[in-house]
Structure formats: structure tokens, C-alpha cells
Write a structure and sequence with these properties.
Length: 275
């Protein structure tokens, strides 16, 4: 099976529809699992599952970035990652607020997912029909990005707050400023992989492994925040798992870089600066 390369349309070894299914199901099930376990056992120790669930969404989002940006939108690679998180934040706050109004926080992820998909698709239509990007996968890609950004933000927000309650996430994530960490770390996890690997030798597996690696760094960040909001036990657990995931996928990424590189050479120390 080919590992998939770049160029227009971004050839893929892993079918986008399957990655979308894995991303949506993995992130939604993970968020629900963590929320139900925390609620049933009256604890916050399972909050780390939210950060793991976010990884599924990030992989889906990173693949959407490579599909859209492989058509050559250049500096739009960072921009589309920030767009994903921007659409995601709007969808998350709308969905959580609606769920609280309806009297069931467990409705939140479903409302968020539906709203994000519709919102992202509309933005994609505007980008193609009004701004005239004329990218064949723009509508589909933007819907994927919006859903991925929303579920990633929700997963990390749950990892920090320990609940899906609108007020809890508002107080523990937005009002504390931790949303800024999520926005930057999440944006990097979604946009950085293709940005770091683009070029004629870009390969899908290398790009997506990079996405998991950066998602693990985001999990380390949520672990630090969770120490302040939930206590040492919950936060430290996220830190340890996040570091273990980062270390494992960093080594995997390095192996893939060596596989795809024309040569791996030692350059030695940098020469002294010329005065």
C-alpha cells in the first residue's frame, strides 16, 4: 500500500472517508466515555480521555488540511488551521449553551458536531463560490476542519475542566485563559503537520504521525492546566500519558523522516558568526 504523496488532490493511502469516520467516532465516543466515567464515579481522574479523544479529531483535521492545501494555497496552510479552531470555538460554545438550555449536558457533543459540520460547509461554499478559490474539496474539507476543530477543542476543554457543563468550561477554560493555550496548541496540531512536511516528498503517514505527536504536546499542556483546575492526580496523569505518547510518536516520526530523506548527514557545529 502506498503511503501517499502530495501534489494536487493529495494522494492518500488512508481513505479520507475512513479517517473522517474514525475521527468523528473516536473523538465523540472518547469524550462521552470520559464524561460518563467522571460523573458515575464522582471523580475527575478520567479527564485525560478527553485529550486522547481530541487526537482522533486532530488526525482527521490534519488530513483535511493536506487535502485542501495540496492545491497550492501557500500561506493559507497556517490560516486554515486557525480557521478550524475559530469555527470550532464558536461551535463548542453554541453547542454547550444549547445543551444546558435543553437541560442535558450530554446533548452537547451532538449539537456541536451538527452545528460545526453545517457551519464549516457554509464557509467552504463562501470560499469557493464568493472568494473564488475553486478548490474541488473546499466545501468538504472545511466541514471536516470545522468538526475536527470543534471536537478537539471540546476534548481538551473537558480534559481541563473535567465536565461537559457550559458554566464549568466557561469558568475553567475560557475565563482562566487556558482557551488560548488550546487554540495555539490545537491550531499547531492541525495545521503544522502538513506545513512541516509539504513538498514533493510529503507522505500522508508521516504527516499524520506528526499530527499525533503535536497532539500529545497539547495533552501535556492540558495536563499542566488540569493541575490548577482539578488537582495534582488528574493533571499529573495527563502529563505522564501525554509525554509517553509524544516520545513514542516522536521516535516514529523520526524513523519516517529518515525513510523519506534523500540523505541523513551530520553537519557538525555551526561556524562562528562573522563579526
Amino acid at each position: 500500500m502506498s503511503v501517499g504523496g502530495s501534489a494536487g488532490g493529495a494522494p492518500s493511502a488512508y481513505d479520507p472517508k475512513k479517517l473522517r469516520m474514525y475521527g468523528l467516532v473516536g473523538s465523540v465516543v472518547g469524550i462521552y466515555l470520559g464524561a460518563i466515567l467522571n460523573s458515575a464515579l464522582d471523580t475527575t481522574v478520567f479527564s485525560f480521555i478527553g485529550a486522547i479523544a481530541a487526537i482522533f479529531a486532530v488526525v482527521m483535521g490534519a488530513n483535511a488540511v493536506r487535502r485542501v492545501c495540496a492545491y497550492g494555497i501557500g500561506t493559507g496552510v497556517p490560516s486554515i488551521g486557525m480557521l478550524a479552531l475559530g469555527m470550532g470555538i464558536i461551535a463548542v460554545m453554541f453547542g454547550l449553551s444549547m445543551a444546558e438550555t435543553l437541560g442535558s449536558v450530554l446533548l452537547g457533543p451532538i449539537i456541536i458536531l451538527i452545528y460545526a459540520g453545517v457551519f464549516g460547509y457554509i464557509i467552504g461554499v463562501i470560499a469557493n463560490k464568493v472568494i473564488k478559490f475553486n478548490i474541488p474539496v473546499m466545501e468538504e474539507g472545511n466541514a471536516d476542519l470545522s468538526m475536527a476543530g470543534a471536537l478537539a477543542i471540546l476534548g481538551w476543554s473537558f480534559a481541563i475542566s473535567g465536565t461537559l457543563g457550559y458554566v464549568d468550561i466557561l469558568n475553567n477554560v475560557l475565563m482562566t485563559g487556558y482557551i488560548a493555550i488550546i487554540f495555539i496548541a490545537g491550531g499547531l496540531a492541525i495545521l503544522h503537520p502538513f506545513n512541516a512536511n509539504l513538498g514533493p516528498d510529503e507522505k500522508q503517514d508521516r504527516t499524520l504521525v506528526n499530527a499525533i505527536m503535536v497532539s500529545a504536546l497539547a495533552m501535556i499542556a492540558t495536563g499542566i492546566a488540569a493541575i490548577a483546575t482539578q488537582g495534582l492526580a488528574s493533571g499529573l496523569l495527563q502529563l505522564v500519558i501525554g509525554f509517553a505518547l509524544w516520545f513514542y510518536f516522536f521516535k516514529m516520526y523520526y524513523r519516517l523522516v529518515k525513510r523519506d530523506a534523500a540523505a541523513v548527514v551530520g553537519t557538525g557545529l555551526l561556524p562562528p558568526a562573522v563579526q
